[in-house]
Amino acid sequence: MKKNMNRSKIYRSKTGRARRKGSAQRSILALLGLSALVGGGYWWWSSGGRSGSSSSSAEPLLHVVTQGPFDHIVLEQGEIESSSNNEVKCEVKGRGGSGTPILSVVPEGTLVKKGEQLCQLDASALEQEAKNQRIVVSSAESAVISSEAAVNKAVIARQEYLEGTFLTERKAIVSEIAVAQQSLRKAELSLESAERLAAKGTLKPLQIEAEQFAVENAKSNLESAEGRLKVLDELTKSKMLVQFDADIETTKAKLESDKNTLVEEKNKLEEIQNQMKACTIKAPADGQVVYANKSGGRSGGDFIVEAGALVREQQTVFLLPDPTRMQVKAKINESRISLIREGMPVKIRVNAGEDELLGRVIKVNKYAEPGNWWGSNVKEYATYIQIMEPPETIRTGMTAEVRIFVEQIESAVQVPVHAVYETKRHHFVLMKDGKEWKTKEIEIGATNDKFVTVKTGVSQSDNVVLDPRNHLDKMDIPEIREENDREKMVALSNQPMPKPALGAGGPPGAGGPSAGGAGSGGAGGGMNADTIAGMIMGRMDSNSDGKLSQEEVASDERMKTAFGDYDTNKDGSVDKSELAAGMKKRMAAMGAGGGGRGPWAGAPSN
Question: Which domain holds residue 316?
């Protein structure tokens, strides 16, 4: 009975799972069928409801040409930074060629006050070095004390000799001289007495000789004493003073050396103590902590501020940006950098926020940013935009969108960018005139990311097609014949033209040598000066103001060299008429056998 019940439960369980599985499969099939139905309906609607019809058969979308204010902008992304960053560097000298490890560091983004601790470096090696240095300083102090005692001893020895030994010796000799003088006097008196007695015959001659010998002996003793006194005063005293003075100077020199050594050792100890203090890095000013992390790129050498990282001497560890002086660093593509000037107004949007900040261009770098090994060959130039009245909510490192206003036109005819069809540097629009479609060539001016200004070709209230490329069957584009393509390509690539034959003023078959006079305009193989000038203006006039500036021709060495000759009115720019006049002079000189290069290569002849 129980077995039958268990089998019944198992059967119901399997049946339930099978039903759920079948239900899920039916749901999936229903969704796939609905998707196919929706996709087929969309295809039928997009194709105009007829199988095999082209997209061009759909009715074109029209746009009414407007006239009004126009902003020529350059749109780029940038990064917010401070124009005034307090760099906090490591002041601890490296030991053994390596850096100093970080023990602890405050979190990035912390707001700190002046004097607060930012980072603690490992000072254990410095503490041991300070202990050893204190022993060295004590030894140096002991040496100074010993040298001072030696100097005092030498000075006292000199004084002892002058006031003691020398005077004692001198007095003894003086006493000897006095005794010798008295002995001589006695001997002389005794000799005189003996001579008187001898005259009377009382004394014998031998006694007289004895008295004479006594006188001579007394004289000898006196002279000996006087000689020793003279030697003592004139020689011995000087010799001893020289020796004592030398001892004094020697001990003084030793004392001075020991004192200098002590000062040096104390300075070393003080330096080590200062290095120990420098292991505690403190904020030099108020600000928000930003780690000075550095990526070494392909070659390595990354530096990340964290516990355990090694910091080298004078390496920047933190940045404390001034929040009141914020700016955006944007990298502008080389194709648009010539449009940017200092002082241009800018609108800034931070992190795709709704509020826009105002700014102005304060600096445009003249040199391209260094590229990475994995980057492209397109050059980018750093441009710095000052943020006017930066709010407290923005932070260093945030991404910002900058809209640089290159030109602001009060009233300009303008059409959407997608409404312009370009071919061979000619621009066309597709217009609807009643029930007819017309193709009109236009001359464009300034552009932005949405609209193009039109100088000639369309007027306000004209209807233009928004997507002419999808309706080429309705366009009637005239055949565009570019005169003398070979010479045009040479002009665009700034390559030297082949030398014409002397006297040949035009191409073969155009009159020959006799037809190539100076006024024929033949030099250039059929291209006249106005055509060449127009090509150069179209290629170099990046801001479309009808003039070439020195900045616009800076990349072309030949035009840069000849710029001063083309600028006949010396206003700092060259317009099309000046350029064409210079070309005519050059071509005339070539027609007279005066040159072998194109008229754009070098200065025109005067």
Answer: 85-122+281-321
